[in-house]
């Protein structure tokens, strides 16, 4: 029934997370989800058109002589979905903190009133986690492994202790920036307690800030970093990898960026492509509905 389609449409309220694969633009992810959801809603419409009563002439003896009017039911084709088209043609699917085509991982979207919740999530200054892959000995124009190569350098002198010291230095500089943009007196007890709890966050607009940075794997020339950030872009993360290489008296390019957490949404909660269906998106958005 058409009422079921309306019911399915109204159930789509809230936030949910999907896994965006690398090499795919976030707009394509959003459009694919919107199409899948609309197909799921409109498939609830009846395949058979409603019936209407008509008086049709019928021969009494079958020889084409006298006729009489017979009451019968015939399909009302004017109201058939194949004639009128789908009942629902537009569904607003909003996208939270975006990922560029180079990156992969958790992408949060909203449907219905979830679009307002996306704005609240964006303004809450929640941190996001990333796993970032790097390769030593190369430098490119855009700091990624796909950019135009401009330099090759040696990296045999680099140890994990060297890398850890550089990461600690970069994190320390970002921690000072975080305190500065939080508008809290750096010498106050409040600043110390908030920093110890990890509850500091910038007020208003601020540049990208790293709230956490550590090495997960070091196997030259390849290494893997874990980053916690606020107000970041993926270009900023690639630049961090480049700066790490320079501080190590070498060069480095970023070979991969994967977001593993966006606020309360983790990889475990992100729907993979085969699960971008109406039932599973509805269930996921209901679970994260406040």
UniProtKB/TrEMBL annotation:
InterPro entries: PsdUridine_synth_cat_dom_sf, PsdUridine_synth_N, Trub2. It comes from the Eukaryota. GO terms for biological process: pseudouridine synthesis; RNA processing. Residues 90-233 form the Pseudouridine synthase II N-terminal domain. One of its GO terms (molecular function) is RNA binding. It holds the Pfam family TruB_N. SUPFAM superfamilies: Pseudouridine synthase (SSF55120). This is Pseudouridine synthase II N-terminal domain-containing protein. It comes from Synaphobranchus kaupii (Kaup's arrowtooth eel). The lineage of its organism: Eukaryota, Metazoa, Chordata, Craniata, Vertebrata.
